[in-house]
Amino acid sequence: MVQCIKAQEKNTITAAMNHVKLEFSLNEGTPHYAVYYDTKTVIKNSAMGFILTDNAPLDKDFTVISTQKKTVDETWKPVWGEVSSIRNHYEEITIHLKQSATARLLDIIFRVFEDGVGFRYSFPKQPGLKYFIINNELTEFAMAGDHKTFWIPGDYDTNEYAYTTSKISEIDNLQVVANATDIAVRTAPDRYAVQTPLMMKSKDGLYINIHEAALSNYPAMQLHTDNAALKYTASLVPDAIGNKAYLHAPFKTPWRTIIISDKATDILSSKIILNLNEPSKISNTSWIKPMKFLGVWWEMQTGKSTWSYADNADTLNAKSQLIANGRHGANTANVKRYIDFAAKNGIQGVLVEGWNTGWEDWFGNWKEHVFSFVTPYPDFDLKEITRYAKLKGVKMIMHNETSGSATDYERQLDTAYRFMNKFGYTAVKTGYVGKIIPRGEHHDGQWMVNHYLRVAQKAADHHITIDVHEPERPTGQQRTWPNWMASEAGRGNEYNAFSNGNQPEHETIMPFTRLMGGPMDYTPGIFKIKGYSSVPGRQVHTTLAKQLALYITMYSPLQMAADLPENYEARPDAFQFIKDVAVNWDDTRVLEAEPGAYITIARKAKAASNWFIGAITNQDSRDTTLPLSFLEGGKKYTATIYADAANADWKNNPEAYQIKKITVTSATKLNLKLAPGGGTAISIKPVK
Hints:
By secondary structure, this protein is α+β, with helices and mostly antiparallel strands. Among the domains are: 2-275, Distorted Sandwich (Beta-galactosidase, Chain A, domain 5); 291-489, TIM Barrel (Alpha-Beta Barrel). The protein contains 13 helices and 37 strands. The strands form six sheets. Strands 1, 7, 8, 9, 10, 13, 14, 16, 17, 21 and 22 form an eleven-stranded antiparallel sheet that branches. Strands 2-3-4-5-12-19-18-15 form an eight-stranded antiparallel sheet, with no helix packed on it. A hairpin with a 2-residue loop joins strand 9 and strand 10 (116-123). Helix 5 packs parallel to helix 6 (382-392) and helix 7 (406-423) packs parallel to helix 8. It is globular, with a radius of gyration of 25 Å.
């Protein structure tokens, strides 16, 4: 039911749901909002509005002409996900504003949920504002204290940073850039910008997460930090000439999201971002299938083989053909080896990178046309591999690296996806390494945001699922386009191959930050923790048991068994967990969590009675007791526990693990001991 309220009935307009309360007001004609959790202030009175290019600002001189209020309580079912159904319960207020001097209209829509607030701007169709350019968005988030904050620096082109933990007042990105020797120079000029999702914890125990939802036809939002005032202001990623967004009324911006709780577990359980996205635009989703996969990838990351067929583009013989370098990973015999291993172990897919021409001179070259997406190298027998994979019952996963040439990729999309349809490829991993061609757009700017959506839509037309690397960070659009199943958009496991790696706390932060917007292709499952690199001292900064637990704590419907087949063959008992673990879920319980410290999650497999638990810790060892009360009462289960060995340690003894089986019920309490940088993975199946 929609309730209309006459203009200016009261100075403050409010909405509340459970612990969360929103207040809207005009302060001398400028829109402001504030957010509270019970009696605690979360967001102090914060200004709203826009600066336009070649138009008067839309930030003051407003009056409220009317408001509308409604309550929604509904349930919907995701195509795939962490739970089988999601409740969407909120109170919505739409505030219709009019600027006195210009007569221009602006609506602000607030939705108040039981665990936070979402709001967006709406530009109605009107004679005084048709085509316009956003110069800046003025949305503020004035925090109520100097909170502990988990952040990465603002950057227009990458999210692949290690996290810093500090107070708001201590945020200074220069210290991170100085230490991030394995990251390119930042392309954002604002020294005090940070990226969302941004996670904070107040001194009095509130957990606060700021992000956005339903990003479309608009640049990604970063946050400029006013260290002294403890205030963030929206900082939109510009285009190549400095403008932020080119719009045409009517238009609605993405939602700004504030998730709040006095329990860290509630932050990870929140569905606000998904609920603020539109329902699926794909009517028949039966072809969209979560899966586990292997890849001819880690051997390239660690230098065992190469993406390129030749050493470089100048390595030509008299017939102007590339000369094989002898280390090319995507050769027919090697790919068949991966297919055999996948078929033997029930892994549904195999990804092959470096199969197509163009890798000899691609990185940083910034050419308009680098790769062909239909031309294999001479040693990659496409027809034979297709025949062999079909014979073995394994799906092949395409790889399309664009080297940042997004316009060229768009020109080739239909050709590339028809090619995939012809050879039975149902999924593609795309990549956008480098400067965007031709204008130098930023990865997180408006044009590229729309490009990623165009690719998802085109892929849906061809019944292809996608896993995007180097995009903007997700904002829940997997609800609207469920074939967009995963993204990278963060510092993944690969950094342990070619850089100083990810510290043990990294995976205890990312579910509170990067994964709030959507699944991540983190590529877990590395078993050879040391000795895979020629660089002295390089290693994965976890234990082997923690690598197993990541399949639960780092959610994705596309999960890669990232290590080499021979490393799994050396430890078949531990590999059994990867074979067993599900990738699609009916239920998820976040049992315990603290950002930067530990996370324990239990998940129930889709259409099955099997449960899986993942528990991880940072650099500190951890003892914990887990009640299994979520199990069905009156039933017995067999729990297979993949744990750190008693002497395990991420740095000195990372590959030491132990496996035991016990009988459990809903009354059982498991006592777990996690090594420094370690974890535990548990498979729970009903006793037959």
